[in-house]
Amino acid sequence: MRLRPVLALVGLSVLALSGCAGDADTGTTPSPTESSSTAAASGACTYAPGAAPAKPVDAPPAEPTATGDVPVTIATSAGDIGITLDADGTPCTVGSFLSLADQGYFDDTECHRLTTEGIFVLQCGDPSASGRGGPGYSFPDELDGTETYPAGTLAMANAGPNTNGSQFFLVYEDTQLPPSYTVFGQMDEAGLAVVQEIAAKGATGGAPDGAPAETVTISGVTQG
């Protein structure tokens, strides 16, 4: 999954957040509300097999198990990032994230991309750190068309409608994006401060878009 250019919003050219599900990476920008139905509307989640996973992992159960607000901590080399997941609003996304976390999928992985102009995010969740890795399955968006991306937002990266995998982004400054990216959690104040400190150090070589200048490694994701 990668951040993919280019998206024009309100007269401002920014980078669109995108991800790679399997080999799909067309360079196009997903339509804001092309797939705005809830993935679990039928009561079950669909995780479709795709390309080989970046790290061996089983698909999540079809029936969501988590409910309500679910606290998790992303432990990183830069500090802990506390997050509250919205299991009621985005059951399939949260179910996938928790399943991957429980299986150690995120353990010892690098956050591979930081953007410091146009959009302000740290992107993680790819064990290959290439921007193309995924869990070997994809699942539908959970959108209602009203999504916004203020500082503190946790959302899924994608390669177009219904191509979610394992990559996610952490918004550290208010960012304008179309409602094309499932919002499934919010950072706490201390966690947001950690991401802001990472962003303050910039991307490699001073570029506005690239790997963080100081490597950020996730050691694990735990509930509670």
TrEMBL record:
Every PPIase cyclophilin-type domain range: 76-223
- CDD domains with a match to the protein in the record: cyclophilin (cd00317)
Q: Which SUPFAM superfamilies match?
A: Cyclophilin-like
What molecular functions are annotated in GO for this chain? peptidyl-prolyl cis-trans isomerase activity
- Pfam families in alphabetical order: Pro_isomerase
Q: Please state the span of the N-terminal signal peptide per the UniProt entry.
A: 1-23
Q: Write down the EC number.
A: 5.2.1.8
Stretch list, region Disordered = 23-42, 203-224
Q: Where is the composition biased (Low complexity)?
A: 26-42
The family database entries (InterPro entries) matched by this protein are listed as:
Cyclophilin-like_dom_sf (IPR029000), Cyclophilin-type_PPIase_dom (IPR002130), Cyclophilin_A-like (IPR044666)
The reaction(s) annotated as catalysed by this protein in its Swiss-Prot or TrEMBL entry are: [protein]-peptidylproline (omega=180) = [protein]-peptidylproline (omega=0)
Q: Which UniProt keywords apply?
A: Isomerase, Rotamase, Signal
Instruction: Give the source's domain of life in one word.
Output: Bacteria
Q: Which family does it belong to?
A: Belongs to the cyclophilin-type PPIase family.
Biological role: PPIases accelerate the folding of proteins. It catalyzes the cis-trans isomerization of proline imidic peptide bonds in oligopeptides.
The name on file for this protein is Peptidyl-prolyl cis-trans isomerase
User: Organism source for this protein?
Assistant: Serinibacter arcticus
